[in-house]
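Allow me, if you will, to draw on your knowledge of protein folds for a short while. The matter concerns a single protein, recorded as an amino acid sequence and a row of backbone structure tokens. Kindly check, if you would, that the fold set down in the tokens agrees with what the sequence suggests. You will find the record immediately after this paragraph.
***
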Amino acid sequence: MRRLLEALYDGAAALAALCMVGLLAMVLLAILGRELHFHLPGTDAYAGYLMAAAGFLALAHTLKRGEHIRVTLLVQALAGRARKAIELWALAAASALAALFAWFSARLVWQSYRFNDVSTSNDATPLWIPQLAMAAGTLVLLVAFVDELVLELRGRRGTRVGDEALHNE
């Protein structure tokens, strides 16, 4: 099961990286178009879609690598049962919020599809297509938070301290 979850997080991160490459391509096409006097409609819109997709698809991978911003001042001051309780509370709250985020993201995709909602820019892309990346990213983030919660409950979650906490000022 662990290998499957890691493959899910890594796969979402790989898709995010591909979106970043696509974003670069869109920006370069727009620049070349201005320099060489041609216009490819929709490059700005697609750059925006790809930027959003990259951000959402990378969320779970970032969480699992301990790179999300956390306020550790209180957690570091606690020990034992109090520390475990605050970690469990934080992960349960984050899981609940991620579940809401995933639910409403998926609902937005469904509504956009159902109402044939299209982009207002000149590309007229059906909006459910770029919104799929947001829904998928939030769903994988939910899985990652529940994974972290289960690991904490089982006592198998490692404590990560980022380098930023050690190198402040």
